[in-house]
Amino acid sequence: xxxxSAAFLILLVVTFVAYYLIPSQKGQVGLLICASLVFYAWxxxxxxxxxxxxxxxxxxxxxxxxxxLDSPRRKLFATLxxxxxxxxxxxxxxxxxxxxxxxxxxSAIGDFLLTIPLPIGISFFTFQGISLVVDTYRGEELQRTExxxxxxxxxxxxxxxxxxxxxxxxxxxVKAHDFLPQIRRKFLRDIDWETAFRFMVTGYFLKMVIADNxxxxxxxxxxxxxxxxxxxxxxxxxxGYSVQIFADFAGYSLIAIGIARLFGYVLMDNFDFxxxxxxxxxxxRRWHISLSTFLKEYLYFALGGNRHGALxxxxxxxxxxxxxxxxxxxxxSYAVWGAYHGMALALERLARDHGFRPLTNIWLRRLWVxxxxxxxxxxxxLPEFGHAILYLQKIFTNQPFGNLERLGLVLVYCxxxxxxxxxxxxxxxxxxxxxSIIQPxxxxxxxxxxxxxxxxxxxxxxxxx
Amino acid sequence: MIFRAILAAVALFLIWMVTIxxxxxxxxxxxxxxxxxxxxxxxxxxxxxxxxxxxxxxSSLSENLTLDQINGRQVHNLGFSGQGVNDGLNVIVGxxxxxxxxxxxxxxxxQEENEQFRKVVLQPATNLAREYxxxxxxRYQPVGVLKGIVSGKKTTKELNDSLQxxxxxxxxLDLKIKDYSQxxxxxxxxxxxxxxxxxxxxxxxxxxxxxxxxxPVHPKLxxxxxxxxxxxxxxxxxxxxxxxxxxxxxCADYSTTDGHHLGERSLDLYSDWLKQEIALLLK
Lengths: 465, 283
Prior knowledge:
The structure holds two protein chains of two kinds. Chain A has helices at residues 6-21, 25-41, 48-67, 71-102, 108-115, 122-137, 144-149, 151-163, 176-179, 193-218, 231-262, 280-286, 289-300, 310-328, 332-353, 362-381, 385-397, 404-426, 432-452.
């Protein structure tokens, strides 16, 4: 179910009204679980079975970990839980890639692997399952007595944590130790309306006005159509795609965070104006924060982080980013994209360790990071590696100018995202003029454009991951 | 802040509602192919029509036919880029008034109906809102209006015949030659045509005159197995004894940009020829 669909709006309103009429925590959690299951099952009801299986698996493992006092056995169960989650993810997400890579066209196994469907949101809820198991093992979350005395209550909380519909299919990836302590009865009077409003309006604007409009232009970046474009078209569309992917994903995250606020839950910020980053490490502290912190906490640190010398640090960075790349999609181009960012991070660290800093101007550094990141997105748009290379080649060989009208329109749709970042840098939000004039006007303009200038509704890019 | 933001949005709505009243009627505000399709569909839904008007349903091949008026009767073009006959039929059936005559393109018949397009155009609540609030229509998107004013253009299509020389169009032609040489799944074709015949006969029963026409394409495609199979399929489901066909003219007399789409001059030439043919056949 799309956040931009009428069905979703009805579900949201009905759930919201019923939620605050229910006088108990149990009832509220139960209602949100039901709404979440409806949300998930809307387009592909059979895939609901997988989500339920994931919930039951993580509940069983967490219960066993909490109930076990013996430390080695707790570790064994936790390892088993992580492995089970990763197996589910690997089976559904990577089977087609394995089939395509390792089995010939005519092989029965290859055919079978290619037919396995990719359940929407699997990368997100399995990672949350891992977080639950690890946090339970570390003793950060579930209280032993409470969990063992009330196994069904534990099941409800875990189902709620894994399936909570705002973040179910495209994040932010919520960590168990952040979410579970928030489960309690919620009251209408506690809603921070203004924050929820700001998140939702900005999110819907980024998605419906920016991303959905840019989508119809960046369509021409597909193979073989891009071969006919001018250099200016190729460059501006690449910029457009960079803005589109940000608007699409940040938009989704903002809507999710805003909706969660309506139900009294605070989800972590997922984007912090990433295109103003002055370094690649800063970019990853600002882009898809919930994934990068997850990878840092549960993978990079587990590999040893930066504690075992420079070489191992570079290796760990590269490995973390390659796996992070593969998390995005079951194609080798995503691994290459991850390696590309891993190398950028490692080289940046190497340069920093040796005091080498060729770009001293802050804006040149921002442009450099933005440029490198933007070129990297080409692998998202053209997952066939050869097509991405051909696109780059065409930048050097095609005619310089083409369809100026298209260029102008793409730039117009990119402008709000530029202002969004510049506003963050330069607007003094403490000033009265900002709060009483600029802010209401900006949100008013966004609402106006959501209704009058939305693009054709399309899936969120990150749904495929 | 929420109240002031909503107030600002309402003020912008009101200002925009007044502004669009003063925009030239022929201002080209389309931004993308999808948007252009929506503009055509919404224009059909929300403009006054006479019971004698003509409508065209078809693909992007028909989209730029310049027929305007025939025998003083208005022509509404519902040829859509990337879409087909059924999408146009959905709009016609969804509108409150049927045309007097319907021109049905035969070339691109296997194109599946675009479900998203149907929903966007005909979803009852939004459809009603757009009917009474023109500000919500695709034609009046602020960015599109801005583009129209800046570019000052009245048409959007890049139809220069010289496009033919571009490698991608040669590639496109090659792909079409390959596709057309493979023929068509006759069972599937028949299913598509039988489904179409139900809708066409319903329109006929409601007094709509039906004319089938086939645009000229690249000479290598004209008599290719797929084109021949589609022609035969039409004639078996819509017998020439019951339906009127405007036959495809000599393809060699026309040039295309990619094998399928007529170039600018050819499009004018064919439009003039088609107008004359239709004028003779109109009841």
